[in-house]
What does this fold into?
Amino acid sequence: MNNSLLIFGTEKFNNSLSEIKEFLNFSFVFYNKDTFTKSLTQTINGILVDSDFLNNIDILDTIKNLEDKPLLLVKNKKFISSIKITFRDTIVFPLSLVEISNKVTNLIIKNKFDENSFVKIKEYVIDKNERKLKKGNLFITITEKEIQLIELLFNGKKPLPKNIILKKIWKYAENVDTHTVETHIYRLRKKILNRFNDENFLFSSKAGYSI
It folds into this structure.
């Protein structure tokens, strides 16, 4: 697996996870109170936090600012209500290896699903599940083809001509003459302009279309 799990905890806590590490075959990134740094440069799929580790203000602030809230390993259920953080899941003692395995695996699966479901385009976000293009509190509903069109143009290193767009999205032969691309571009531009008042999301030139 290429999954990595960030762990905040004591050395004793980290050592107690050795069996889990072997069982899950994850890549673990471990921090204790002496080695902790605010600069988290690793690509993390999930976070596991020992509740005893949350009395450090810097660590608590870092966890609060993380976009993907961690799994919390707690000693008792009363502890959960005392922390003003919304955790994705909790593991409460007594616990089993299977329980930890299932919850950590589900967290990583959920993170990977979210990574594939939300795409940032400039100051916008595409929500593929709801088929929406969002900017702040505003959104428009877009079609599956419009999602594919936006992603294709955004990922293109240069403007894409109509024949390439047709081939990539509609699987048309390059010599097919159709106004499909122009129609979709026109409708998408109109929706974005009406809702976001943005005339500079999609560009067209002699070389083709771009974002």
Observations:
- The chain has two domains: 4-117, 122-210.
- The radius of gyration is 23 Å.
